[in-house]
Amino acid sequence: MMGDPAGVPTETATPTVPRVLTGSFAEGPSYVTWRSRGTTDWLVVHTTGGRGRFGAVDGRSLVVGRGDLVLLRPGVRHDYGTAAGADGWELQWAHVHPRPDWAPLLDWPEALPGVRHLHLAGEVHARVRESFARATALGQGGLAQAELFALNALETALLWAATQVPGTSTLDPRLISVLEDVGARLAEPLTVAGLARRAGLSPSRLTHLFSEQLGVPPMRFVERQRMQAARQLLELTSRPVAEVARAVGYDDPLYFSTRFRRHTGCSPTAHRARSTGALPSS
């Protein structure tokens, strides 16, 4: 974008965005975008490499690097490009008309007037990058309802990003893989040592993080998730109690029933009867 002799920047074309449009760029040092009136959609930009720059109407700038996520709301001037002195800028982007229920996902801190910003690291950065790439692949893949697939993938990226919004219950990125591991392996033997290895932490450090951020130590959290899964199986299936116990990691159905009663105040059989409106057999 060279601009005219008077120094007025040349307007960058504004894309047509029915609901969502995503993509990725790997740009050199001269890359610049200027839209004096912004766009009617929200623009999300995720930096995956190099450095970029966002300018604001008050003359200040925000320099971004790997893991930075920037959000420009509708009507905010688009003044961004490769940062001065950088060899290039690699970015994933999305123009989107969000659904109304996305409002909490877009409530990020404002770094500059009209420019919202989050920094992502570790597992969260990887998940956002993966979800952006999936949104682009689905949106360009020619599937029926491709736009809805892309919109859902972008929502996943924003959900991951929302775990890092300051002032909310920000989750340590090292816990994310552990929580997923627990959810996927409830039927298997789980130990603090094994979960700690998954997170790359010592057992004592993992226990501290669980207690600090989730309010319970690791194995109490595991049991809580197992009991939640057991309640669902009892309510939604007719599996015998012993089979439900095995499905959530208990080989001994009597011990499972004891733990279930401690968590819920009733036996597995009574819980099933209550959920179906039936009387438990005597």
TrEMBL record:
Residues 176-274 form the HTH araC/xylS-type domain. It comes from the Bacteria. It holds the Pfam family HTH_18. InterPro entries: AraC-bd, AraC_XylS_family_regulators, Homeodomain-like_sf, HTH-like, HTH_AraC, HTH_AraC-typ_CS, Tscrpt_reg_AraC-type_HTH. Keywords: Activator, DNA-binding, Transcription, Transcription regulation. GO terms for molecular function: DNA-binding transcription factor activity; sequence-specific DNA binding. This is AraC family transcriptional regulator, arabinose operon regulatory protein.
